[in-house]
Amino acid sequence: MQDSEAATKPRGIFDRSTKGHQMPTVSVEVERGQIRFFAKALGETDPIHFNIDAARAAGYPDVVATPSFFMPIEAMADEERARLGQPSLIKLLRCDFGRLLHGDETYTYHGLVFAGDVVQFDTKITDFYEKKGGLMEFVTIESTVSHAERGVLITATRTLLHRLG
Amino acid sequence: MAIANLNDVQVGDALPPMTFGPITRTMLALYAGASGDHNPAHIDSDFAKKAGLPDVFAHGMLSFGGLTRIVTQWAGIGRLRSFGARFVSMTQVHDLISFSGTVVERFEAEGETRLRVSLVAAAQDGRQTLLGEAVVAAS
């Protein structure tokens, strides 16, 4: 029975037993150089993302992270988890890079991220579902970036998917 | 940076558009390094071919990050309340992406006037790659 089921219907690649899993909270330091490098990679030209004087003249304490700087924060959080012997989100979900696509990404902003901030990163795997008769499988992930004094700065919701066809 | 006075903005107004690219392998390599997203499908053509893809393809988040710029250049990052996008088709190497945005709603929330902006990223052949939405504070 199991053999014929496996042969007729591959049940996806994501490890769906991780639904509801909360990744261990980690803290990461946001470095000025990384804000600049990331901004430059996006073709950003606004000096508040590069120049401390320009940022201060605009009323900010230090260079300002661009809106999708959530991505490097997450990557830093993954590196921090690796140092603690914890698997990355990608590994935990068993993502197959040959089939993986990004479905959507949404950020809600409650505050800005500045160079020098130490931020706490939390991530939870909230749901799995399929579309197109099981030819695509999706995972939904929710994360927050928060600061000890300024509270939650970013909430993020996104879906990743595998093409199973 | 010149920030628009959003108090006078009407539903239907367009944001100043922007082109992004053409996407090069160098852009993908730099984005991989800067973002920490080292998925080889975006930077290693040997891997891409082994996985049955014609070539590497762009990180959706590279265009996403570019698309945020048409909103922040217009409204200022301090006014940005939310930003999101769906990745509706793959962005390929050599694609020239156009970003456009339109104000679709003016509303009150959390004690301030806000504007909802509908956003599109499209390649040179008209193929839409990202469909997004941003909310900004009007004042």
Q: Would you state the CATH class of chain A?
A: Alpha Beta
Q: Which fold name is given in CATH as the topology of chain A?
A: Thiol Ester Dehydrase, Chain A
* C-alpha geometry of chain A: elongated
CATH class of the domain at 10-23 and 59-137 in chain B: Alpha Beta
CATH superfamily of the domain at 10-23 and 59-137 in chain B: Hotdog Thioesterase
Mean pLDDT of chain A: 93
Say how many strands of chain B there are.
5
Oligomeric description of these chains: heterodimer
Quick synopsis:
The complex is a heterodimer of chains A (165) and B (139). Chain A has 165 residues and is an alpha+beta fold. Chain A is built from 5 helices and 5 strands.
Structure commentary:
The complex is a heterodimer of chains A (165) and B (139). Chain A has helices at residues 2-8, 32-41, 52-57, 70-83, 89-93; strands at residues 26-29, 100-109, 118-131, 136-147, 151-163. Chain A has 165 residues and is α+β, with helices and mostly antiparallel strands. In chain A, strand 3 (118-131) and strand 4 form a beta hairpin. With 139 residues, chain B is α+β, with helices and mostly antiparallel strands. Helices cover 24% and strands 32% of the residues of chain B. In chain B, strands 1-3-4-5-2 form a five-stranded antiparallel β-sheet. In chain B, strand 3 and strand 4 form a beta hairpin. The radius of gyration of chain B is 17 Å and the shape is elongated. At the A-B interface, helix 2, helix 4 and strand 2 of A face helix 1, helix 3 and strand 2 of B. Strand 2 of chain A pairs antiparallel with strand 2 of chain B.
